Amino acid sequence: MKGNLKREIITTSDGSTTIHFPELDEHYHSKHGAINEAKHVFIKNGFDHILASGKFPELNILEIGFGTGLNAFITYLQALKINQNINYVGVEAYPVTLDEVKLLNYVDQLSALNYQTVFNEMHESSWEDQSTISSSFLLTKRKQFFTDIRDENCFDLIYFDAFGARVQPELWSVDVFKKMYEALMDKGVLVTYSAKGSVRRAMQEVGFVVERLPGPPGKREMLRATKN
Fold this sequence. Notes:
Oligomer: single chain
Radius of gyration: 16 Å
CATH topology: Rossmann fold
Strand content: 25-35%
Helix content: 25-40%
CATH class: Alpha Beta
Distance between the termini: 34 Å
Number of strands: 11
Structural class: alpha/beta
Low-confidence stretches: none
């Protein structure tokens, strides 16, 4: 679906850019702040939360919707601060083009000019192969539909950053969350910006323990789900 629609780069409320699909009025990130959303949902309530539960020699992260690479890049910067090893897998059916990547301002907005080459490499690295972004950050990008995921007991943390249920309800179904549940190891965590009741019930149906948490700017709530 995304491959056939008009795409434009817009600036969100915190000054960071995202990709907008005007025909759907849908964005890769929140129009209220792409960076603010990523930091609140995926870093504070995902990455930081799970690391507070114990030490991980290597934290295994699956991102559903690699998109602009913002979540991966912020995770890299956060892991660098605490010397945490990361094995990061990003799944994306419709990759962002390198021309679009050049128009994204995350490196500047995050005051991370020393790591411009890291952000570039995340996008320029080959698909399906594991790339060594740094000695502590391994990245595998998989060009794959989310419904085709077959991982079992592989990940500590899932960033669920799919297009919203309003435009792609099939990505927020019981069948997809069953795949997410199976992909996580015991006590693994999934975080998402969504707080829809139907999404929460789908998560609970497959066995997740689900928490409602305060949302990022522009959203009242978000969800965090833990595998029993």
